[in-house]
Amino acid sequence: MLSRVADAVFWVNRYIERAENVARFVDVSQSLSLGGIPQWDALVFASGDEELFKELYGECTASNVLQFLLFYEKNSNSILSCLIKARENARTIREVLSVSLWESINHFYLRVREFAKNPGPVLQNPATFLERVKRSSHEVIGVNEATMSHGEAWSFGRIGRLIERADKTSRILDVKYFILLPNEARVGSALDVLQWSALLESTSALHMYRKRFGRIVPRSVADFLILDPHFPRSMHFCVAYTRTALYKITGRQLGHPLAPSEKLCEELHQRLQRLSIHDIIQIGMHEFIDNFQGRLNALGESIRHDFFETREIEALPSEQ
Question: Residue ranges per domain, the chain?
C-alpha cells in the first residue's frame, strides 16, 4: 500500500473520532453546568486550544465556547474543521473507500455544514446537535466495519481512531482530576456523584460501569476508564487493539516487535497490563496521564515515521 493512502486513511478516521469526542466533551460540560457549576473554562483547557480561544474571544461564556468548538473553521479542532479535513482526506483516496463509506462521510460533513449556516439554535440548545454528531460518527464506523475489507487500509483507519480515542479519554479524566476535583467537603456529595456520572456518560460508559462496579466511586471510575480491557473507550482497550492492528499490518507475531512503533506500543501495552489503579494513584493521576499522553504522542509520531514517510508500506525492517 502507498504511504499516501495509509496516511489519508489514518487521518480520515482520526478526524471523525475527534469530531465525535469534541461533541462528547461539550455534552459533559453541558450536563455539569446544569448541575450548578460552570465548566466552560475547563472545556477550553481540555481542548488544548485555550491560547487561540483567548485571542479570539477572551471571555469563556457558553456561547463563545460553543461557537469555537462546534463551528469555528480557524479552530483546527472544531467539529466542523475536523469534518472538513476528514472529507478532504477521504476525497483523495475515494478509490480505496467503499462507496457507502464515502457517502456516509460526505453526508456527515454536509449535515454539520448545514447547521453551521444558522448556528443560533444550536448555540442556544446544543443537545440535539451533539447527539446527531455522535450518531453520525457511529454510522461512519458501522459502515466502515460492514463494507470495507479488513486489510491494511482498515487497520490503519482503526489505529487512527483508537489513538485519538485513547487521547481524549485520558484528557477528560485529567480535567476531572486536575481541574474539577472538588474540595474534601464535596467528595462523595450529590454534586460529586453528578460530575462523575456525567463524565461516564460522556464516554458512553455509565451503563457498563454500573454493571461492573455499581456505585459511583471516583477510584473505580478511573480504574474503568484507564484499565478495563473490554470497554472500547478505555485507554487500555485502545492501546491493546492499536497493538493488534500494528502487528496485523506488519505480519509479525503478537509480542515480537521489530519496527519502532511496534516496540513503543508493546511497552505501553505492557505498562497498562502491569499497573493497578492503586499504582496509578500512588504515581499521581495527573502525572500518570501526562506520561501516558507523552507516550501516545511518541507512538503516533513513530507510526508516521514507520509507515507514512516511506513510499511503500513494505519498506520496513524485516526479521533476519
Answer: 1-148, 149-313
